[in-house]
Each structure stands twice: as structure tokens, then as C-alpha cells.
Specification:
heterodimer, A: 257 residues, alpha+beta, Glutaredoxin, 2 domains, five-stranded mixed sheet, 9 helices, 13 strands, elongated, B: 536 residues, mainly alpha, 15 helices, 0% strand, globular
């Protein structure tokens, strides 16, 4: 409960700060949509090896910045992410992946591995998550490069940090396509976001239908049904059906002909 | 071909057949397509008289600068209600509901439309919708948004906007159901031997129109519901303050309302294509070209709506695309005009009344069409946008096109409908006065528009005075002509001399049945063995 209160407190700070212009933002998310993350940034993976992030991003990827010792919103955020990934029908690690990156350079690999084990225990799709949800640490230079490029602004407060809760979505080329703010994510919205980030990559047809019918509402920051598109399609579909029935179904013989 | 279908005097006509009902119930409970057609016509005539009165009121207000008869608010209400009545109650349903209903089964050799009860139901919806529209005149004062109900003003105005918009919404259903009825009728109920390309041109245009009615009308229905949601529930579809988009309204509105122009004009073209061969005693020139151009207009007409919004702030690409498509849609219309003229070439023309209407239709339609290209070009559009030029243009098309064709059709099929002939010399007098009045009324408005007189104002600068006087006098002449025509027709329907089955020596199936036709049209469903428009 304390965590949630703290989380809402931080969210309040974030939203108040968000009202100011981008440059003044000390803590929060400055959206850098359509910009690229530095694909040559180096991180340390779960085995303690140094890897180049660009080599790993080959599918839609969720980035989220936390620090593993975090007493505040990081845990609800990661729980929210775990739930959303569990709840949609895309295959984690195949259709998309998630990177959780510690922005505290003092933290080591082992902390991350432990964290990952905890969350995997919560998940139904823990097997997929084993290879699809990766935890990283990094040195201060690389972390600064990444958080800067994604607009993730945070501030140390004693031993801890004040920071925002958000998921940053990048496409397979490293371009930022969407920010999902908050700590609760609807599995459906996560799925739509991933489909959108997948760009030209082919997926099941039903996904294309979903993408056609729903569009992103930047104001409410969620996916909404595009009523004009759906209504238009229905009208044309029914018209086509009527035409086909009239042309293809044979006329019944009437008695007086 | 007429001989073997002699009028059988024992058969009662549809006007005598009362279905065992009395008084007004003979009409309002009848599912006979011919009676329903007349029900539509009488209702429309009432509204038309209201619409004409409002139009005349505006022209009289504009006879001099400053306030002459009505003030600004009353003027705004007048042009709004005039537009709503004329567009939604008269020209959109006009030819399909009246002549389509009456003639479609007769022309394709059927006993009725496919769904006669649905047909009557459509009429009730039409009446309900018209009452809603008219009810907007009372209460908080008539709407003042213009017939287009543009957002954001349409959900801010304190006037009676909702009844008018809801009326238009309800009227849409009458239109959709009539369209559906006609599509099924044409597909399923053509007489044996009447293949698609032996079908007369008026049913062909009804077919193209019916598809537009069916597919485009739901869009305006949804749009008007959205306006209602905006006004009543405060949902921000179109309100920029709530994240909505006023431009979206314009898009949605014109996606319907531009094809609606083709709902008006296509059947008008169909009626003209029937009249011209009959009075030139020649097969129509380029039958297939006319059919294909009908379908082309119906199809391309869907993609030109943006030309109403050239100054609304669309992207350059959208502007070019819509302008180009607008020029494209002019081609099939021009093909038709070419074909009508070519039909007259070397024909033996008799200048009967319907032919006079058809010829004057071509005249005003050409002026309306060519000035449409001025509006379809991006640069000139900016200059004349929202001026009297636009008003002149669409009255030449909508009133000149649909109206002249309606009166032409009326004088052509009148003997079939009532079994009586009208007084030809009064009809001719009415026509020439109407025609002169029409050109005098709307002609000067082209000039005024180019000179910069804006539309939709009750007042204007002194420099516009002269042409406005001419225009207002033209309105009086036009109304005089209209009254002569109306009185002549009403009188003749009761007391005119009896008309034969085929007074004009027409070739269509409708001329093979007695005038007025019996309840079930054909005693025996005819077999069609040759193309239509074959004259001996």
C-alpha cells in the first residue's frame, strides 16, 4: 500500500512537471517519438557479458528503466508489465521482447537476475519470458546516453531516485514509436503497440484488422475504436453482400412468368 | 405494339381501385407503387411551396441594401430552412420517390416494386422526417446554421438545430429503404427478355442512384447523430476544445452530401434521356455510353467531396487530388450532353412541352456544369468561394437540373399518371415565363459573385444593388411561371381531356398500358424482344 501511495505521489509530481516546457523537466518523460535510440550503447547482460544494444533489437522492443533496489513504483511497474505480457496472445521473445534496464550504475548483474527470477515466478508465460524479457545493467556513460535519448529524466534523492513510470517502445530499427505511461497496461493496448512497432513485419491477418479498426488517441494516450472507419467498412461490406446475393443467387421462378 | 394492348374499359384504373377503403385511407394505406408515388408528390409539392416562399422572401430582402423585409437573424433562419426543405425534402427524394416509384415497375414490366409494404413504410418515414424538420420552425426559433449544419456552430447555436438535424437523419432512412427497394426490383423483377442493356435509361439512372442512396446515406446519418451527441451529451467529436476536429465534420458531411448531388441529378438525366428520343423520333445516341457514364458518375461522385472544402485547410495533396477528380467527374456528364445533342441531330423534332423542358434543361445544366469547373479549379475557387457565384452555380445544377427535369418528367408522364391531358398553351406559357425568370434570377448572381458579393448575408454594399434588383425581379417572374404551371396541372388533373394510352408515341413499356394504368399494371407480364428506343 505504501508503495502505491508513493507511486501516485511520484505520478502527481510527474504530471505537474509535465505541464512545463520540455527543457524545464527535471523528472518525468520527455517524449522523443520518431527519434532513434543510440544503437551502439553497451549494456551488461544477465551473464555479465558486455553487449551492444543494437545487436539485440531485432523485433519490437519494450524498454523500461528502473533500479532494482527501488522501493517505489518500479515493482508495480514491472508487475504491470508482466501482467500485460501474460495477458496478450503475442509470443514474447518471438513477436516482441522487453528490456528492463537499471539506470543506477552502482547495481550489479546479480541483483537483476534475482529480480527477473521473482517476476518470472509470477508469470504464466515464464518460459517465454526467460528469453524474451531481459534484464540489463550498465555504466553511467551508457545509461546517460540511453536515458537521454529516450527522454527519461530522473533525479537522485539520497540513496534513491525520483523517476517516472513508463514503457518506451522502439521498433526493430531502434526508433521510438510509443510511450506507455503509468503502471497498469491493458494487454490489448500492449499488443496494439507491438503490432504497430512491428511495421511491415507480417503478422496474422486478424492483427491487421485490429490495426485498421483501432487508432491511437494521443490525447487520452490509448487505443480507441475508429468509429468512422469501422462504420464505413461495414456499410461497404453490406452493400457488397447485397450486390453479390442479387447477382449470384438465382431468381426464383414466379408462377406468372 | 400498342394495338394488341387495347385499353380494356372493364378494368378499373389504379385511381378508381380503392381496395375496399374509404376516404383518405384509400391513399395512406395503399401499397400500390403508383399511389405511393403520388403521396410523395403531394407532400413534396406542399413543402416546395413553403421552400419557394422562403426563397422569394430572401430575394425580396435583397432587392435593396440594408434591412428591407427581414433582419439578420430571420434571414439566417430563412436560408437555413429554405436549404433544408429544398435539399432534404424535395430534390434528394424528388425524382426517385415520385417518378421512380410510379414508373420503375411500369418501365421494366413488373406489377409493383419488390417490397410494396416497405415502400409505403418509407413514405411514412419521409412524412415523419419532414414533420421533424418543419417542427424546428417553432420553439427556440428556426435553426440558423445553413443547411450544412457546420460544426462547431451547429452545436453552439441556441436555435432549434436538433429537430432539423434529426429530421434529416430520419429522412435518410426513407432514402435508404427506397434505394434498397429499387435495387432489388431492378435485379429481380425485369420482364422476361429485358436484359440489362435492353433496360430503358430512366431505370438505369434509378439503379445508379439507388446504390448511392444505400451506401452514402448512412454516413450522414452517423454524422448527424454525432452532432446530436455533441449537443446533448457534450461528446467532443468536432469540438476542438475537447480534442475534436471541425474539419472531420465537413469531411463526413460532404462524403454524403456530394454524392447526394448525384442522387438529385442522375434520375433527372434519366428522365431527359427518355424525353429526347420520343420527341426527336430517334433512337438514343450512344445508349451504352449513357449507361456507363451513369455508373461512372455514381462511382467517381464518391471521391470528389473535398472540393467543398478547398479553403477549409486540407493538405496540398488532398487539394490536387480532389480538384483532379472533380474534373474527371465532369467527363461522363459531358458525354451525356453530347449524346442528347447527337440524338437530336437529324431527328424529326416536335417541340412539345416535355421537349421544351428537356432542351432548357440542357441549357441550364451546361451553364451549371461549366461554372462547376470554375469552382473545381483550386485558384478560381479561392476567389469565388462563399460568394453569390456558388449560390448561382448550384441553383443552376440543383434547381435548373433537377427542377427542370422534374417539370419535364411531369409534363411527359402526366397523361399516364392521371389519364388526362393538360392545357398545352398554358403549359407553354408557364414554361417560357419560368425559364426567363430562372435565368434572370440566377444569372446576375454569377456576376455578383465574381465581383465579390458574399453569400448568406441579408445586407450588401451599394455597388451590388443593380444586379440584385434584376435578380429579385427574376424571382417574381419565376414564381409567376411556377404558379401558372401548377394551376394548369392541378386543373388538368381533374378536368383535362382524356388522354390515350400513348399520347407521345413513346416506345417504353409504360406506354403499352392504359392511362391511367390498372392496379397491377400489366394484365400479362410483357415479353421484351427488342431494344428500347426503336422508332418506326
Amino acid at each position: 500500500m505504501k508503495r502505491i501511495v508513493f507511486a501516485s505521489l511520484v505520478m502527481m509530481i510527474v504530471t505537474t512537471v509535465g505541464a512545463q516546457s520540455d527543457d524545464d523537466v527535471e523528472v518525468g518523460m520527455v517524449e522523443k517519438l520518431d527519434q532513434y535510440i543510440p544503437m551502439d550503447a553497451r549494456l551488461i547482460n544477465e551473464n555479465g557479458d558486455t553487449v551492444v544494444i543494437g545487436d539485440l533489437i531485432d523485433k519490437p522492443t519494450i524498454l523500461n528503466f528502473v533500479y532494482f533496489r527501488c522501493p517505489g513504483i518500479c515493482s508495480p511497474l514491472m508487475e504491470g508489465l508482466a501482467n500485460a505480457m501474460d495477458g496478450n496472445d503475442l509470443v514474447l521473445g518471438e513477436d516482441y521482447q522487453a528490456f528492463t534496464i537499471s539506470f543506477d550504475p552502482r547495481e550489479g548483474t546479480e541483483l537483476g537476475v534475482n529480480k527477473k527470477r521473482n517476476y518470472l515466478n509470477l508469470m504464466k508465460k515464464s518460459e517465454q519470458a526467460q528469453k524474451g524479457w531481459l534484464f540489463f545493467t550498465g555504466d553511467s556513460a551508457n545509461i546517460a546516453e540511453l536515458t537521454d535519448a529516450t527522454g527519461f529524466r530522473y533525479k537522485p534523492a539520497g540513496n534513491d531516485f525520483i523517476h517516472a513510470a513508463a514503457l518506451i517502445i522502439v521498433d526493430p530499427k531502434g526508433k521510438i514509436t510509443r510511450y506507455m505511461n503509468g503502471i497498469y497496461f491493458l494487454p490489448f493496448e500492449l499488443k496494439m503497440t507491438m503490432l504497430e512497432a512491428a511495421e511491415s513485419k507480417s503478422g496474422p491477418t486478424i492483427n491487421r484488422v485490429l490495426q485498421f479498426c483501432y487508432s491511437y488517441d494521443p490525447e487520452g494516450q490509448k487505443y480507441v475504436m475508429n468509429i468512422t472507419k469501422v462504420a464505413g467498412t461495414l456499410i461497404i461490406f453490406m452493400g457488397l453482400m447485397l450486390f453479390l446475393v442479387l447477382v449470384l443467387v438465382r431468381k426464383r421462378k414466379t408462377s406468372n412468368v | 405494339m400498342i394495338e394488341n394492348n387495347e385499353v380494356n374499359s372493364e378494368n378499373k384504373s389504379y385511381l378508381q381501385e380503392d381496395g375496399g377503403r374509404k376516404g383518405i385511407f384509400r391513399w395512406i394505406l395503399s401499397t400500390d407503387h403508383k399511389r405511393i408515388a403520388l403521396l410523395y408528390m403531394y407532400a413534396m409539392m406542399c413543402w416546395f411551396i413553403v421552400g419557394v416562399t422562403l426563397g422569394l422572401l430572401m430575394k425580396l430582402e435583397l432587392i435593396a441594401p440594408g434591412k428591407t423585409l427581414i433582419g439578420a437573424q430571420a434571414y439566417n433562419a430563412t436560408f437555413t430552412v429554405h436549404g433544408v426543405i429544398m435539399i432534404f425534402l424535395i430534390v434528394i427524394p424528388g425524382l426517385p420517390a415520385v417518378f421512380g416509384n410510379f414508373l420503375l415497375p411500369l418501365m421494366i414490366g413488373a406489377k409493383d416494386v419488390a417490397f410494396p409494404r416497405l415502400n409505403l413504410f418509407s413514405w411514412y418515414i419521409y412524412v415523419l422526417g419532414s414533420i421533424l424538420v418543419i417542427s424546428s420552425l417553432f420553439g427556440n426559433g428556426p435553426p440558423d446554421t445553413g443547411w450544412t449544419f457546420y460544426a462547431p456552430y451547429s452545436f453552439r447555436t441556441s436555435t432549434n438545430m436538433l429537430p432539423a438535424a434529426l429530421g434529416a437523419f430520419v429522412l435518410g432512412f426513407a432514402s435508404i429503404l427506397t434505394g434498397l427497394n429499387f435495387i432489388v426490383t431492378i435485379h429481380r423483377m425485369r420482364a422476361p427478355g429485358m436484359t440489362w442493356f435492353k433496360m430503358p435509361l430512366f431505370p438505369w439512372t434509378l439503379y445508379g442512384t439507388a446504390w448511392i442512396q444505400l451506401l452514402a446515406t448512412p454516413i450522414v446519418g452517423i454524422t448527424l447523430l454525432m452532432v446530436a451527441g455533441e449537443r446533448l451529451l457534450g461528446i467532443g467529436f468536432f469540438d476542438p476544445a475537447k480534442g475534436g476536429d471541425p474539419l472531420l465534420y465537413q469531411h463526413l458531411f460532404w462524403i454524403y452530401s456530394h454524392p447526394a448531388v448525384y442522387i438529385m441529378i442522375l434520375p433527372a438525366m434519366g428522365a431527359i434521356s427518355e424525353i429526347i428520343p420520343t420527341f426527336t423520333r430517334k433512337t438514343i445516341y450512344g445508349y451504352k455510353a449513357i449507361v456507363l457514364s451513369t455508373l461512372a458518375i455514381a462511382f467517381v461522385g464518391y471521391f470528389v467531396w473535398g472540393h467543398h472544402m478547398f479553403t477549409s485547410g486540407m493538405s496540398g495533396t488532398a487539394l490536387f487530388a480532389f480538384s483532379f477528380l472533380t474534373f474527371l467527374v465532369a467527363i461522363p456528364s459531358a458525354i451525356k450532353v453530347f449524346n442528347w445533342i447527337a440524338t437530336m441531330h437529324q431527328g424529326s423534332i416536335t417541340t412539345e412541352i416535355p421537349f421544351l423542358w428537356a432542351a432548357s434543361f440542357i441549357f441550364v445544366f451546361m451553364i451549371g456544369g461549366l461554372t462547376g469547373l470554375v469552382l473545381g479549379s483550386l485558384a478560381t475557387n479561392v476567389h469565388v468561394h462563399n460568394t453569390a457565384f456558388v449560390v448561382a452555380h448550384f441553383h443552376f445544377i440543383v434547381f435548373g437540373g433537377t427542377g427542370f427535369a422534374f417539370f419535364g418528367a411531369m409534363h411527359y408522364w402526366f397523361p399516364k399518371i392521371y389519364g388526362r391531358m393538360y392545357d398545352k398553351s398554358w403549359a407553354r406559357t408557364g414554361w417560357i415565363i419560368f425559364f426567363i425568370g430562372f435565368v434572370t434570377l440566377y444569372g446576375p448572381m454569377f456576376y455578383l459573385g465574381i465581383k465579390g458579393m458574399p453569400r448568406r448575408y441579408f445586407d450588401y454594399l451599394e455597388e451590388f444593388h443593380g444586379p440584385n434588383i434584376i435578380s429579385s425581379l427574376g424571382a417574381l417572374v419565376l414564381v409567376t411561371g411556377f404558379l401558372i404551371i401548377l394551376i394548369n396541372l392541378v386543373k388538368s388533373a381533374r378536368h383535362g381531356e382524356k388522354a390515350p394510352a400513348n399520347p407521345w408515341d413513346g416506345t417504353g413499356l409504360e406506354w403499352r398500358v392504359p392511362s391511367p394504368p390498372p392496379l397491377e399494371n400489366f394484365e400479362e407480364i410483357p415479353v421484351v424482344d427488342k431494344a428500347t428506343y426503336k422508332f418506326d
